[in-house]
Amino acid sequence: MLPDLSRPLLAATLVLGFGLAAGGMTATGQDNATVSPPTPEQVTAGKRIWADAACYNCHGNNGQGGNSKDFPKGPNLRTSLLDYATTLEIIACGLPGTQMPAWARGAYTERGCFGDDPGPAPEGTHVVGVYDEQQLADLMAYISATFHKGALE
Questions:
Q1: Which of 48, 80, 104, 113 is spaced 20 to 30 Å from 130 by Cα?
Q2: Which string of b and e fits 26-60 if b means at least 16 CB within 10 Å?
């Protein structure tokens, strides 16, 4: 029998793998064409979230990927092939089986993750749960405008 972590981890793996092949569809089932360009205010607000959450500890000051001996080596956000919605879902829900925490308020318990209905977080998933949906959208605006130069759709 597989541990409780198997289903969310499988879902996350499928999201990451098939999300790249699916083209227009995303982890949340949204069409990538619906993402609006970020406003300067969103980018500024997102930069504050980036600093507050200390994303740079794992993803590097410039989104180039982590290289600190004191923190997990997060992936390079500048070269990521993940689309907007998949990246947002990973930030919101974390990545089960890794050290990437879930930042969304109510992740798993109030907000379903990776296509599942709300329920308990997978074993070993660190849920920080401090940011609402608008704050996560602002963070995505910062990531998109700063590291992808607006190309993250």
A1: 80
A2: bbbebebeebeebeeebbebbbebbeebebbebbb
Q: Which tokens is 90 given?
A: 């990973």
CB 77, CB 143: distance < 8 Å: yes
Query: What is the C-alpha separation between 120 and 134, in angstroms, rounded?
Result: 23
* Nearest C-alpha neighbor of 55 from the set 99, 110, 22: 99
Domain locations along the chain: 38-147
Kindly state the tokens that stand for 3.
Answer: 């541990």
If we measure between CA atoms, which residue out of 148, 130, 9 comes closest to residue 87?
148
Structure tokens at 21: 């092949």
Q: Which pLDDT tens digit goes with each residue over 67-86?
A: 888 999 999 999 999 999 99
Task: Give the count of beta carbons closer than 10 Å to the beta carbon of residue 68.
Answer: 12
Highest CATH level, class, for 38-147: mainly alpha
